[in-house]
């Protein structure tokens, strides 16, 4: 289900994050094509310490899971295209990622409090709240969750 991400995956990743409903649920603003490609090429693909994996379903690119270091924390994030929602794919992909691709513990994630589906995915994979929700600089209420042990 997961393989190393490549530049050839970027068109699907771009469409996934540009979907207005997906961006609303994630409470994360979509980037334009140029900014998106630049971010992926310079900040994710090929960077030491960044682990990027593509979610493949029925031989089709469906999304991605990425982990990186920021402010002394190891963080993980994921994005799945809307046609693949509600089928347990995000849970299976994140579970595989934390078991095989990034076994760093603790591993953290931020989730918008309003994104109930993503909160469930994280909980099913063993992530637990690391405190109370806070309001980010962009005004989004978010919760930091942590995976302390293997799920």
Describe the protein.
The protein is an alpha+beta fold. The protein is 33% helix and 30% strand. The chain is built from five helices and eight strands, in the order βαααβββαβαβββ. The chain has helices at 10-18, 20-26, 33-44, 89-101, 116-124; strands spanning 2-4, 51-57, 60-70, 73-80, 107-112, 128-129, 134-135, 141-147. A four-stranded antiparallel beta sheet has the order 1-2-3-4, sandwiched between helices. Strands 5, 6, 7 and 8 form a four-stranded antiparallel beta sheet that branches. Helix 4 (89-101) crosses helix 5 (116-124). The longest helix is centred in the middle third of the chain and has 13 residues, at 89-101. The protein is globular. The mean pLDDT is 95.
Mean pLDDT: 95
SS element count, helices: 5
Radius of gyration (Å): 14 Å
Helix content: 25-40%
Return residue spans where pLDDT drops below 50 for at least 5 consecutive residues. none
| Strand arrangement in the largest pleated sheet | 1-2-3-4
Query: What is the terminal separation in angstroms?
Result: 18 Å
> How many extended strands?
8
How do the helices and strands follow one another from N- to C-terminus? EHHHEEEHEHEEE
3D shape: globular
Query: What oligomeric assembly is this protein in?
Result: single chain
Report the major sheet: 4 strands, antiparallel
Q: Structural class, from secondary structure content?
A: alpha+beta
Fraction in beta strands: 25-35%
């Amino acid at each position: 289900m997961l393989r190393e991400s490549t530049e050839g995956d970027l068109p699907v990743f771009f469409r996934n994050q540009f979907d207005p409903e997906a961006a609303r649920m994630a409470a994360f603003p979509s980037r334009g094509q140029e900014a998106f490609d630049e971010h992926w090429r310079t900040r994710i693909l090929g960077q030491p310490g960044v682990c990027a994996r593509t979610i493949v379903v029925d031989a089709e690119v469906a999304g991605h899971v990425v982990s990186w270091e920021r402010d002394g924390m190891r963080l993980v994030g994921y994005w799945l295209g809307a046609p693949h929602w509600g089928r347990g794919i995000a849970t299976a992909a994140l579970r595989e990622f934390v078991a095989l691709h990034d076994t760093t513990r603790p591993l953290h994630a931020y989730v918008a409090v309003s994104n109930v589906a993503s909160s469930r995915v994280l909980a099913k994979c063993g992530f637990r709240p690391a405190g109370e929700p806070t309001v980010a600089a962009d005004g989004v209420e978010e919760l930091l969750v942590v995976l302390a042990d293997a799920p």
